[in-house]
């Protein structure tokens, strides 16, 4: 039964998400329209990272810590690069397929595997510091606050390990719906809170020391007649800005929550399996139908909506300078104006598609294609 369920999860993720019990024929992805470019990206360096995202629906995201950029492929190749030159600092070949990564901070590089393991490497050398067992696939980057490392597994369990030794500190378990999308969002970890979005459409905050629940908030309630319609997964990574936590769900809502209490500050109907970004007082979300939308952080009203990328399987958005950036299934990088959402620029990374959110650090942006091409860009 478990094996069958996992196959269903993979099938759901590999389909054009926005799946429906309807027999209506799906429309093709929108053709790209010509426009007058206002901004261009300058390629600073590029590098091939092994097998990239691999054959399954992995979302392996690079991470920056200091002057180093850490990246992994699906076969267990982990690399540390100089973020400005792309030069290799170290390279490590693990003996397991990687499905969750990369988490980085406090001297650690953190990865999760298809075998349900969490692996911690030394950030300076790549040497393995510890390896600990979880209950199932780890599909999101493990995260750390320097004291504990937290991993969210596919079966909606949260494991906290000692950051120094890998010994398990605590475990939080949550029951799962019958069907879920393949994937989880990375938890948010502070000195006091571990906050995670679950496949039930609920956000829960736990105490970092003991894993005891502090608050929970239902962001989306399952609706519909079929199990497919009732999926309300929180798959995209949550965004913490100040004391506000931004979250989006599949078949549900985009919302802002108060970190201390879990109180819903605002909410708006939305369906997304990626995540959110913020800038100019707005929250940006890539909807599952390919619409990119800007939502006012204070009023929850939509300030603009760009529908020109319909059904192009967009990545989560990122904010670079004055632009909202998304990748698509053909490997295009699209830059939209933060002001009104009009198309301002476009670049082609390659033919393998872009599934993971572009990583922005200051004036630099790192885009990791599904086929393993990693490119560092700045704005010309």
From TrEMBL:
Membrane topology: Lipid-anchor
SMART domains in the record: PQQ
InterPro entries: BamB, PQQ_b-propeller_rpt, PQQ_rpt_dom, Quinoprotein_ADH-like_sf, WD40/YVTN_repeat-like_dom_sf
The keyword Ribonucleoprotein appears for this protein: no
Keyword tags: Cell outer membrane, Lipoprotein, Membrane, Palmitate, Signal
Pfam families: PQQ_2
HAMAP family on file: OM_assembly_BamB
UniProt name for this protein: Outer membrane protein assembly factor BamB
Gene that this sequence comes from: bamB
